[in-house]
Amino acid sequence: MHLQENIQQPSSKNTAQAMFSLNGKTAVVTGGGSGLGLAIAKALAGNGAKVIITGRDENKLQKACEEIGNACCYIPADLSQLQAIPAFVEQLIQRAQTIDILVNNAGINMKKDALDVTDEEFQNIILTNQQAVFALTREISRHMAAAQQGNIIMISSMAAHYGLPKVVAYTASKTAVEGMTRALAVELAEKGIRVNCIAPGFIATDMSAKALNSDKDRMQRVLARTPMRKLGHPDDVGYAAAFLASEGARFITGTVLAVDGGNSIGF
């Protein structure tokens, strides 16, 4: 076989608009009721996808769907209940027929001195941020593999890139997520499934506002280390997810994309 036969030739139909459109795609976004999950769901819907958001707070999910519009629906779920995940995925398939995009956004954090973290607290973070992510990805990937196409996006954190105090369990879980991204990308590529990860930096959310607005010194350190000298907006993460989910990113898999204004390479 000649090398030229393996090169995907450009088509006149592959306009920029078509390559970045998500029309006809169905996406599942975990933790889609607020924060980054909501921003991701909005961006995917804005690019043409039908979006199913999930989470534990039904009121948040309902309000989020009202905000996004007709392209969105929700199914409440507690993904920390691992044994219930296969039935939940079947419920998703019954609702959507097919799942083209999965965004593993849901996660929890805990700020506590490492020496005071109990085994139970550590395991609780790992259960939600790592084990549930794998279990859901495994079950949905089975359906994607049958269709020979799919797109999985993990959400990590800058905590996986350098040491942050008081978040040892969270850091461990997000570092594992980045490792899973690379391992799954290699294993699932032959099944037509791409797997990528987004590592948000300091984003202006309600959570970061509580942490930074009350600690001016920390805010200054964050901005001083960030070459762009500002916090990101949740939409910045949403747009990155929409790109990775599109055909415009068709030759990208196994990557961890930092959306951080340069914070991870700042000095």
Concise description?
The protein contains 9 helices and 7 strands. By secondary structure, it is of the alpha/beta class.
How many structural domains are formed by the residues? Answer: 1
* Residue runs with pLDDT of under 50 for 5 or more positions: none
Euclidean distance between termini CA atoms: 48 Å
| SSE series | HEHEHEHEHEHEHHHE
For the secondary structure, the number of strands is: 7
What is the count of DSSP helices, taking H or I runs of 4+ residues? 9
Physical arrangement of strands within the biggest beta sheet? 3-2-1-4-5-6-7
Pfam family, one: adh_short_C2
Protein name: NAD(P)-dependent dehydrogenase, short-chain alcohol dehydrogenase family
InterPro entries: NAD(P)-bd_dom_sf, Sc_DH/Rdtase_CS, SDR, SDR_fam
Family: Belongs to the short-chain dehydrogenases/reductases (SDR) family.
Account of the protein in words:
The chain has a single domain, classed as Rossmann fold (3-Layer(aba) Sandwich). It is built from 9 helices and 7 strands, in the order H-E-H-E-H-E-H-E-H-E-H-E-H-H-H-E. It is 45% helix and 14% strand. The mean pLDDT is 93. A 7-stranded parallel beta sheet has the order 3-2-1-4-5-6-7, with helices on both faces. By secondary structure, it is of the alpha/beta class. Helix 3 (58-68) links the parallel strand 2 (50-55) and strand 3 (72-76). The chain starts with 15 loop residues before the first helix and ends in an 8-residue tail after the last strand. It has helices spanning 16-20, 35-46, 58-68, 85-96, 119-147, 168-188, 206-212, 216-225, 234-245, and strands at residues 26-30, 50-55, 72-76, 101-104, 150-155, 193-200, 256-259. The radius of gyration is 19 Å and the shape is globular. Belongs to the short-chain dehydrogenases/reductases (SDR) family. InterPro entries: NAD(P)-bd_dom_sf, Sc_DH/Rdtase_CS, SDR, SDR_fam.
